[in-house]
Amino acid sequence: xxxxxxxxxxxxxxxxxxxxxxxxxxxxxxxxxxxxxxxxxxxxxxxxxxxxxxxxxxxxxxxxxxxxxxxxxxxxxxxxxxxxxxxxxxxxxxxxxxxxxxxxxxxxxxxxxxxxxxxxxxxxxxxxxxxxxxxxxxxxxxxxxxxxxxxxxxxxxxxxxxxxxxxxxxxxxxxxxxxxxxxxxxxxx
Length: 189
What we know:
The protein is mostly helical. The protein has helices at residues 13-24, 29-36, 40-50, 67-78, 83-90, 94-103, 111-122, 129-132, 134-145, 150-160, 171-180. The protein is 58% helix and 0% strand. It is flat, with a radius of gyration of 26 Å.
């Protein structure tokens, strides 16, 4: 494509589409411009005019419920079908359907709400639990100061606070906080 265009000539629709595809695939401005036969400044102007490159839509993992499946669950619940019947019709495990229904309102389940909640929970990056929960952070820091290992802390918190999910943290999270925080203070900047 391109290559023989005169300086100052406009990009064709096909060349613009080719440039955007190349940039979306990770090529540099210079590389994409050279392949199409224009300047890297032309690429920059195109991106400004078009509002940039649309992000790639990440395909949903096969194990995740789709909006269509959630709508089918909602219809089945409205028809008073059992969760096992709904799961069998979808070709899903009954535990998958049960978990989604329980997490999203039980018998008042709504597909759009479940889908929105799943989308929000999947967003990255997630902030560390030790950043938001001061009480948990202080307890972890206290035990680290007593030279407890992250595995010991995580296990003991589950024993000390059996009914308080806010006071649970995995040893991996504690290790990650230690690596991220240069001063060794969990969750603080």
